[in-house]
Amino acid sequence: MSGPVISSLLETDLYKFTMWQALFNSAYNDNEAEYRFVCRRPPAMPLAALKLAVVREVEHLCSLTFQEDELDYLRSLRYMKSGFVDFLSIFRLQRRFLSIETRGDALEIVARGPQVHVMFFEIFVLAIVGELHARRFPREQALLEGRRRLAEKIERLRGFEREAGVLLAEQPFSIFDYGLRRRFSAAWHEEVVQTLTAELPQFFKGSSNVYLAKKHGLTPIGTMAHEYLQTFQAVRDVPLRNFQKAALDAWVQTYRGDLGIALTDVVGMEAFLRDFDLFDAKLFDGLRHDSGDPVEWGEKALAHYAKLRIDARTKRLVFSDSLTVEKSIALWRHFSQRAQTGFGIGTHLSNDFGPAYPALEIVMKLVRCNDRPVAKLSDSPGKTICDDETFLAYLRSVFNVAG
Fold first, then answer.
1. For residue 373, with 0-12 CB atoms within 10 Å meaning exposed, 13-18 middle and 19 or more buried, which class applies?
2. Which is deepest, 73, 116, 267, 356, by most CB within 10 Å?
3. Domains of the chain, start order
């Protein structure tokens, strides 16, 4: 019988800790929030059938606490504050804040309560649902195919290294594991990370999974996600038009130069750049792409830096939207002579087993904060998330974004 999906509270993405800390140490640590689970495409098998297993896994999750060696590890990260880590030493997820129901074949999961508590459920819930779904496939067959595909990726990257040659010395190619939220299983995720660490240390530079980063001596990777910026759409004393500036300013005040990659697509790249002035462009180390055409996005970023008379070669463009090895190589070839680059690869590493074993396309997103709707106006069709059409129309009008 398989063990629990989650065995450590460290087994989440780094940006859950960094966003959590930024809000915990802010004037907005009393926010109330609602996060909702969404499956964007029909799954191979009805998720409603997983309800009892999900409940068991969540009850186990809510029994976990941070261990002393885990707290010591977090303290070793220079951007983690001692007061926040002391709070984590007494923290435990509370089951009462999470609703798990079914509607027809669908699984409905909602986290509702204090934001500095319920925001921590997200990655765990996604990993739990994803692995329970994957356990219904023939495991050994899937793993054989997964290992074959992983070997192909490694061989492709070795071939790329031969092709790129001396260019890599001046223009490094760096990939990171961003695959926790939609992985096939915890065991496979670790196998992938171990294999890439051993086989491609020249390219593989870290993982968003804090547990695996600690266990395997890797750099934990991540800064902020959409929920952090969306929160500022609904907090007191921040006009909606100013939410991006307020979020970035609060981030800078918390991290003082660390974790300097800004996410750009909460209301679209063009609206973001209108707020990303010389002050922010100099303070932040770079930008992260997560929706829309990556080449178009990158060209807009470079043009913006040029307009501000900033040498983009001192900045980093991080790509993280549905990346594959081949896409990453192509983007490196396009941009690496004009800016530093980085590539966060998710499902293509942690859940690529071919069409016979499809990965779930699941998210768990912030939909309300302080009893007000929040939204993401994505640069990609189908990624816009909001449960209030009136607010969505208002947000578009405020930022002059077409519907």
1. buried
2. 267
3. 14-136+360-399 (3.20.140.10), 141-350 (3.20.140.10)
pLDDT in tens, 161-196: 999 999 999 999 999 999 999 999 999 999 999 999
Task: Answer whether 0.90 is exceeded by the pTM.
Answer: yes
For residues 136 and 191, the answer to whether their CB atoms sit within 8 Å is no
Q: List pLDDT tens digits, range 197-243.
A: 999 999 999 999 999 999 999 999 999 999 999 999 999 999 999 99
For residues 107 and 37, is the Cβ–Cβ distance under 8 A? yes
Q: What is the pLDDT of residues 68-87, one digit of tens each?
A: 999 999 999 999 999 999 99
CA angle, 185 then 87 then 26, to 5°: 100
**Which pLDDT score is estimated for 383?**
66
